[in-house]
Amino acid sequence: MSGGRRASVEDAVAEQQEHAAEDVTMTRIGQAVMLHHGGDREEARDRFLALWAAIGEDGDALHRCTLAHYMADTQDDPSDELAWDLRALSAAEELTDGRLARHHQSLAVRAFYPSLHLSLAADYVKLGRPDAARSHLRQSHGALDALGDDSYGDGIRAALTRLALQLDEGSGEPGSSGEGPVGPPRRES
User: Fold this and answer.
1) Which of 100, 66, 69 is nearest to 86 (CA)?
2) Torsion (CA) 178, 179, 184, 186 in degrees, nearest 10
3) How far apart, in Å, do the first and last CA atoms of the chain sit?
């Protein structure tokens, strides 16, 4: 590799890292996610709400998508969870690969859809709406080719299979298959 090319790659990586470090909103979302994963659901929800107020309904699509996706997990009411997951999907539809590349070069918008639709399917199961759940399961399944062969992709595929089996069994009750939580695993932000 020539010295000029190496400098270009290194410059690009440094620029990407600098931009990521400057994205205070994504850092704050990540901190709230850690609170939630640590068991402080209420504090995480409060921080997400404050961030949502700062971002606004028309704010950066990546911030809205990420925050809404995680905010859904902090909801007590399945209808509220659905509302947040719908916000995440709506924001993803506005998101571009160019915007994602400024955050992390390896991300693609297409890779968001399996998890987003799986979350919506799980919401509809909780709300006793199996037809809507199946529709989102089909959409999730149709987007699986965007996922890598890694632990995250494997987790999404496993959750998709569990939820599909649960719907096929006709119970519609979350977790009735006894094989773990309904919905997708969340990728660390």
Assistant:
1) 69
2) 110
3) 32
Tell me how far apart the alpha carbons of residues 103 and 112 are, in angstroms, rounded to a whole number. Answer: 14
**Cα angle: 162, vertex 167, 169; to 5 degrees:** 95
Task: Name 180's Cβ contacts closer than 8 Å, sequence gap at least 6.
Answer: 159, 162
**DSSP three-state, residue 118:** helix
| Residue in the block written with tokens 């949502």 | 52
Cα separation, 108 vs 150, whole angstroms = 15
Tokens of 17: 């890292």
Cβ proximity of 42 and 71 under 8 Å: no
Contact 82, 51 (CB under 8 A): no
| DSSP labels, 8-75 | HHHHHHHHHHHHHHH-HHHHHHHHHHHHHHTT-HHHHHHHHHHHHHHH-TTS-HHHHHHHHHHHGGG-
User: Of 20-34, 73-87, 150-164, where does the model show the most confidence?
Assistant: 73-87
Which pLDDT tens digit goes with each residue over 51-74?
999 999 899 999 999 999 999 999
